[in-house]
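Service request form, structural biology core

Requester: graduate student, group of Dr. S.
Request type: structure prediction, single chain
Budget code: on file
Notes: please return the result as structure tokens.

Sequence provided:
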Amino acid sequence: MNRRTFILTAGTSAVTAMTAGRCRLFAQNASVLAGRRQYRAGRISCIFQPDSAIFLRDDKPILAYRTTFRKNDGQKQSNNQASQAFQVPFPCFTRLSSPTLLLPLSPIRMSAAAAFVCDNVNGVNYTAKKTKKNAVPCGQIRSNGLKWKEMSEIGSAGTLPPPSSWDLGVQGVFEDECKWVNPDGRVQMIDTRQFRVVFYSKSRYGIYTTIDWYAVDDVIITVNRNCLFGVQTSAPLSPVGGGMMMNSNGDFGAEAIYGRRANWATCWGRLQSALPETDRVDNADLQEGVALMSHPSNPWGVSPWNATSFGYMSPTHIPFLSKPWSLRAGEGVRLRYLILAFTGDPDDGEVDELYRSYIST
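Core staff response, request fulfilled:
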């Protein structure tokens, strides 16, 4: 999953500011812009369609989830790109930006920023494409269309435990139901994913993810590395790009993290190191990062980790199976994860503190 051949881009145009103001629920502040519904809560807004949810802070895009990607979708493309019809191969986050500088925490091409996928499901791959070297049949993960739930303030209702401080305190919630369709057109699995995007402050936001995944047919999943929920970081955050990778045990580097059980893993670094000097701002040494946390209620408890030096992190037991993982028709699992984007290093981002709060919910 760390070196895919598909191409994703994740930009979007800035949107004209709409009516500001805060109340407990903001669904009534929804407006329609050129057929797109927009929800706003103070400095946070979301441009929402059945195939995409694009969150903005101060009208600048900070993260995006898409079920499809249309050519010329607000992106300036090179001649080589323009000759290709882009299509997201499965629903995923196509953009994660750093909370302070709004620079990419994830690649804007070549990989999903964060995705829930799996290969070797009854002998079918749902990520890797079929090629001359890879003759494994390929299925599709198809979204039934995103559903908006709410935009609201957080903290006062006690729905989420607060970190030490924040100045935004807004959450947006949406859902996606996906069918896993094999090459014969038969639905083998269905998942329902809920994403609760929480903006704590200018220096920190989180994506609380709950996935209910169940089998329509009897399913057998065999060992593979393209499996379950993972995050792909941008080059400056990866070990090969000069960034740092660490897990909750204090192990550093992908080789030390791979296969070890841990509560969370994180990558961080200086994102501006990849920019031309003319584009850098004064605080060129500012570090930002992203952490992925696995809830201990997941079926394998504290998870072993799949990790690569290119900045891919995924808490999953599937690469380390001693025998196939099977689900009978009608059986399912609930999977919970938290993506945390933060400014500074893991101590500055209160990564472990937020993990402790997370597992108490």
